[in-house]
TrEMBL record:
UniProt-recorded name of the protein: ABC transporter domain-containing protein
PANTHER family according to UniProt: ABC TRANSPORTER G FAMILY MEMBER 28
Parts of the chain that traverse the membrane: 258-279, 830-847, 859-878, 936-956, 1029-1055
Coiled coil: none
Pfam families: ABC2_membrane_7, ABC_tran
Amino acid sequence: MQLLSQALFNRFSNFSAYLGPEVVKHLEFCISNMDTEWNKAFNFSKNTQFLAECLKTDRDAVQRLCTAAEVKFYGASLIENAQSGSAKSSTYLKPNKNCNLSSWPSGCEPGWACSVGKDTKVDLKNSKDIPLRDIDCQSCCQGFFCPRGLTCMIPCPLGSYCPLAKLNKTTGVCDPYRYQLPPGQPNHTCGGADIWADFLSGKELFCSAGFYCPTTTQKLACSRGHFCRAGSTAQTSKSNLASSLKHLLLPFSDQSVFFANFLLNQCGGGITLVLLIIYNCSGQVLSTREKKQAKSREAAARSARETVQARERWKSAKEVARKGASELQSQLSRTFSRKKSVSQDSTKSSGIPKPDAKGKKKKESNLTKMMRDLEENPDGEEGFNMEIGDKNLKKNAAKAKQLQTRSQIFKYAYGQIEKEKALQEQNKNLTFSGVISIASDLEFSSRPPIEVFFQDLTLTLKGKNKHLLRCVTGKLVPGHVSAVMGPSGAGKTTFLSALTGKATGCTITGSILINGKDEPMQSYKRIIGYVPQDDIVHGNLTVEENLWFSARCRLPADIDKAEKVLVVERVIESLGLQAVRDSLVGTVEKRGISGGQRKRVNVGLEMVMEPSLLILDEPTSGLDSSSSLLLLRALRREALEGVNICMVVHQPSYTLFKMFDDLILLAKGGLTVYHGPVKKVEEYFAGIGIVVPERVNPPDYFIDILEGIVKPSASTAVKFKELPLRWMLHNGYPVPPDMLDSAGVASSSAEDSAHGGANPAAKADSDQSFAGELWQDVKFSVGQKKDHIRLNFNKSMDLSNRKTPSVMQQYKYFVGRLGKQRLREARIQAVDYLILLLAGVCLGTLAKVSDETFGSTGYLYTVIAVSLLCKIAALRSFSLDKLHYWRESASGMSSLAYFLAKDTVDHFSTIVKPAVYLSMFYFFNNPRSTIFDNYLVLLCLVYCVTGIAYVLAIYFEPGPAQLWSVLLPVVLTLIANQEGDTFVTKLGDFCYTKWALEAFLLANAERYSGVWLIQRCGALRQRGYDLSHYYPCLGFLLITGILSRALAFFCLVTFQKK
């Protein structure tokens, strides 16, 4: 009997070869490999017991088996019924050769089949003709199903349970199936199964959840410690995930397998514990490293100080010895003869023992020898074991290029600083020649001088015909500290913007010459420092880290690390930031250093790049007098090295005022009142009748006059509105006609003319209609945006002769900086992960896997939740750093390096977040697809939405960007979940949510085989999905992520605000 059942199985086991072309034609979207799917559904080679039982009860069973043509007919009918969309018609077949209106044998009834006759040979491989089968009709064997409208029987697929039906006399239905006995046929009994269809139409055929069916006639309950899904052929261990990972990790150590078990069985608690540790101990990693560096730095500074102190003590001892020797010689001179006295006097003047009369040299004592050596080489290192800061630095082994260890570098830097202090102490009243002397001793790096000359500089607001600056003439000289002062609204910041070429939305007339040549200021941006009015400093970095990063990216690439450290240490020392060098700058949420220290760090960011031109916008605002004095002393030191410094200040103290070399005094409307040496400003104003009263700060008095708060004395014929005109006439500058005309007109008219507030064109504009004004505003806004874009894309030839680090080097520096920032923001990252864990728990619990939809509800929520949470988290990458980027890019740092570094650091979250979410969602939801398939889809989804978040963060302000981040995932997911052939459905084909949802469902649907095959094909046809689209969907997500990043970078360099 076993041989007969095996022969019976062999006859229909290769049906796939004959049904393959038809399946490929109609079901290619849901069946990727016909042979594989056929084996999963009808491979009974492991257990053919139900075939043997069928042959025992019905010797003619082979004659009742459906041929390939009948199986094809049944499948074609199911496809046609599915396309028609009628659920009721899915259980009925079209009329055929055996079952039609004229012929309806009992075998056409559900659960029954007929034979072709014992003597008739049936070719089961015949896929074209349905044989005549209408004799010896009886019920199907168990393990087979006989559909209504066909007179043959088909083996039930694996995962189904097909026992013989029993009549329920109460309902008249053949249990466990749904068909009833035909009326008028008393001899007709309940047969076998009647239909294999989708889960809703033929649910009774599926092996029930909680049970597993090794064969189609055997149904067993799941044992303890296992679970069984609907349609299962075997029970699954609850630790199957861990055991499968064990097989994956067989080549590795036992510890890896143990870790896999721990991670998969205790993933929730383990990940939560790790996140809590990170949340509480994230700062210890960097603080430990900083303490180690601080010890090395303090040791080097202490060594340098001790060396200098030893040198000073030795010089003091030398002076005492010389004084004692002089006194001794004077006493001996009284005793000996005049001749000998003269000889002793010559010896005293030389300080060297004189040879005796016989020509022999007296032996020098050690003290005398050391005195003579120190006198000949006072900066030598003999007797002190000095390693740094000596005059013969080039000749010694401890050169900057030869310094390798951190200790050597710090010793070199602090030695140089201590030497500079000593030389400055010797030359307190430094002159330019003295500075040159110090520079030659200390080998200061030469900086190319930049002299800025501007003539008739005028800025007019486009579309408004309003002057922001007017007829400003003067120059900024290297080595001078120039102060720009004036009342509020005088155009001081506008003046600095015009000099640096950053004024947009304005018409600029006049000329700006750099070193006597008509060249754009942007050509020298690598050696120009611009300190903005706001303190744009990274709050989650220390003072030293902020300065060190700026130095590494902006100093010449060929400078050694030791020299860069020296530059940074020199700036920290000069700005008085030693005490807070290892302190975080701080943010609004987290307190850091004081406001004055933060302001000095803001200035130090530009000082460490050793600029030739340093422009500062109100660097002393908000500082007390001592901090302002300290800052200005540091700037004076920079000026003594030939740096051209121009700064805007508000009412400085008299001490600070006297420290400036030149003064540019502006009146409202951007008109010059005075431009010249600070020493002569009072003399000039006294010449026109404005005398500063005693005990009154001159800058305060001048600004009060320009504001109109203080009026000049009655004896003075000059009005404050005429001061710009007086300056222009005093220097012989050309005066605009309207300013000349305003000299003799009424006060109100003079005010408008003098301050550029009105002109004929402006008066004509005031009569425009509302529509005209609206049109002018629109034109102005568009023109301003065009100017911004043109400025961002305007590439000038680099004339600074400074080669800064390459893009890849800057990329390395940016990655290092961002790594430190992310470590300090580890608490925020931990909160993100905890929220993802919570989302995985909630969605995995609420959205249970539905076998009818392959878990589409859970995946729908997953796409929305992961997109929303990851987008909001990714917004922080660029939204919070816009100001810092604008400053750094304006100074010449690489935008590409900045963007790539941000994206690289975010890749960590892109890799980790899917695993964090799945650790909970997969555990509670338990889909049939593997965790790797789900992780791969989530990885591509997170990569895609992160790129989209970059675009939103860069293009929009933080508020609208967050709104779009919440709105987009919800709307696009709802569009992607639409069914049917509508415009919205076609629109969804271009949404990333559609690709992610399709990939999730395809990965899950592919695991539904055997009895689930028809359900799989029906669900995929309804949604328009295709199994072959799994990898294309992942590819589309990746491509979207790449394109969105390219768009984000374009927005970064195009719509930035300089």
